[in-house]
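anyone seen this seq b4? input:
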Amino acid sequence: YTYITGERPSSVAVGDFDRDGRPDLAVANEAFSGTVWVLVNTCVSAGPNLNLVSSNGTVSVSWPFPSTGFILESTMSLSLTNWQSVVEAPMTNNGRVEVSVPLSQIERYFRLRKP
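predicted toks r here
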């Protein structure tokens, strides 16, 4: 998209200009006086970030609430493709979804997946 502006614009704004739920950029560029370019975000979202905290023999895995449709999975090795859903039940706590998982001697990797 291109919009007409005044002389010598120079600014950047972030917003969901096409109303698809992803942030887009509006750029007013002095080199192209009189225009604003809207750069539409076409990237697939990576999903919410996981937070891990270890305490008293457990690890708390949490992510922002609401994050509808995501499943917490784990695996013992990143070289394997057999990710499995964790059996521990998620709970909502202070605006986050949280799962407490017992610590063991075995390495364990976590991810959120949206089927």
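The chain has a mean pLDDT of 82. The CA atoms of residues 74 and 109 lie 5 Å apart. kinda curious what u guys think
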